[in-house]
Input
Amino acid sequence: MTTYRARPVTPAALKELRTADDSGRPLSPFTDAEGGAPLRCCLRRSVPGERIALVSYAPLRRWAAATGAEPGAYDEQGPVFLHADECAGPDRRDGYPFADAHRTVRRYSADGRILGGELVEKLDGDAFRNAFDDPSVALVHVRAVEYGCFLYEVRRP
Output
């Protein structure tokens, strides 16, 4: 059985985003009074009192830069929450974060083009097996339905 792993934003990207985001804006941290923000650095929800930031992030652009892909118009950027300061990253590697609502599993080819997506009620290994059953799928983005925000990436094992 293949295990698919949710991948947080990489430490190298986090370091850059904490200086300037993918739109060139400087970090603007704040204290989260309510909690519940989906943090892409450690793949958990924030708790009240944590210092976090909302930054613009271009996950496909960063993946393409590392792989040589040319996503063209599919190069999206959007808002993501992260800890304002360095954190330890995810504290566990099993299960799928932010699985408490409908999610979109968006599939991409090796050249960075969208191959389709699926609305899933239950985010589990079956959702990723279904996506990767297509041999042309190189990676998957999990996105929130309500805002379309990038939550995390899953790559072909």
Notes: The CA atoms of residues 43 and 92 lie 9 Å apart. The radius of gyration is 15 Å. The mean pLDDT is 93.
